[in-house]
Design a protein that fits this description.
By secondary structure, the protein is an alpha+beta fold. It is about 25% helix and about 30% strand.
Length: about 375
């Protein structure tokens, strides 16, 4: 019999006991229907797990107004992170940027302004002039920057978004969705946390003009720390907000409300509902060993398997004890094994609903064993499978 034919694959399921430190026996969790929201579309998301708690028309393509500037800022932050620009770089202000209509940071043509100042002007003051200046600095022109914006949108999975400018000023095909904007907010928070505190700043002064952040929730709710408002006649009043209470964070998006006060009230309703009835739990840490697996024909007989990223779930408050976790692992794992090789799947369910279904990966490397080790393991495996 050929050596390889002895390594037949079959699966074995391991049941993992999730840590329940300090928890009492779970009981039925009763959750009311989400509140009614007075907006054209909306969504409430947990940025850690990506779970949607509530939504309505969240994939409807609508004008995003100045919510567009979240993508403008995200691309600038990416350029900063990758070292292609720095906060202290001086940006020359063009006539075109200076003349851009709408909300303004009040930069002046012919001057040079630091990237950091312009980024704050975009995020805090919603400056259209600052947005165009940064777009020209990063890509050479606003049109070229828009190409980058749309490429980045596709990379992030914003499938229903198309940008035509860096500001959000009205344009026929300039469209996004509540869901896509939640994805973008999630990326801003998770990818560049060092810059995220800017979104919580309440005021910014430039050219001796002090302007407030238009997100009034920053004054009303201490847990709110971002992100961006938007308004045009076509779009109505829009808001993307995020708040963190204890270890749980939510992102709320509402589009098409009737006033600045309404958008704040509707977002507050969504956030309060999420925090009242749901919580975010980290079940597994990146690099955490879930178990040791038997390896055949390798220099080592054992290898660690686990996950390379943190795994979070969003669950009703008080339901932690109802979670069930299993690993479906290929019981015949043959060397050579490289770090990151997929060896099975881990599933987490709550009352029959699958919350997590992710590949289990090798955390350690196991090179192939010598000839006699492989022969000996093949013989052992043959009898192991018989019994």
């Amino acid at each position: 019999m050929a050596l390889k034919s002895l390594f037949r694959s079959f699966s074995i399921i391991f049941v993992l006991t999730l840590m329940l430190v300090g928890k009492t026996t779970a009981q039925s969790v009763l959750i009311p229907s989400p509140p009614q929201i007075a907006g054209t579309s909306y969504v409430l998301m947990d940025p850690k797990s990506g779970r949607i708690i509530m939504e309505e028309n969240s994939h409807e393509r609508l004008p995003p107004a100045s919510l567009t500037k979240m993508m403008t800022a995200y691309i600038v932050e990416r350029e900063l992170d990758e070292g292609r620009i720095s906060m202290s770089d001086m940006v020359p202000i063009s006539v075109r940027a200076w003349k851009t209509e709408g909300s303004r940071t009040f930069i002046r043509e012919g001057t040079s302004v630091p990237v950091e100042t312009l980024l704050k002007g975009v995020i805090i003051q919603s400056g259209n002039d600052a947005s165009v200046a940064l777009a020209e600095f990063v890509a050479g022109s606003e049109g070229a920057f828009v190409d980058i914006m749309n490429q980045q949108a596709q990379i992030l999975g914003m499938k229903d978004t198309n940008f035509e400018n860096a500001t959000g000023l009205p344009s026929p095909e300039h469209r996004s969705t509540a869901y896509d904007l939640a994805i973008l907010a999630r990326a801003i928070i998770n990818d560049y946390p060092e810059n995220y505190p800017i979104y919580a700043e309440k005021h910014f002064t430039y050219n001796n003009i002090r302007q407030p952040n238009r997100n009034s929730l920053l004054w009303r709710d201490d847990s709110v720390d971002g992100l961006k408002t938007g308004h045009t006649e076509e779009a109505g009043y829009c808001l993307v907000a995020s708040a963190k209470r204890n270890d749980t964070r939510f992102i709320a998006v509402v589009m098409g409300t009737s006033s600045s006060e309404s958008r704040s009230q509707e977002i507050q309703k969504m956030l309060n509902y999420g925090f009242r009835y749901y919580e975010s739990e980290r079940l597994f840490r990146a690099g955490q060993e879930l178990m040791e697996a038997r390896v055949w024909a390798g220099q080592s007989d054992q290898l660690s398997v686990g996950l390379t990223e943190d795994v979070y779930v969003t669950i009703p408050r008080g339901s932690r004890n109802d979670l069930e976790s299993t690993v479906d692992l290929d019981s015949v794992i043959k060397a050579p094994i490289k770090v990151g090789d997929e060896l099975g799947r881990v599933k987490v369910t709550l009352n029959g609903d699958v919350l997590v279904d992710q590949p289990v990966l090798a955390l350690t490397e196991v090179p192939e064993g010598g000839f006699f080790k492989r022969i000996w393991d093949a013989i052992k495996l043959f009898f192991f499978q018989l019994f």
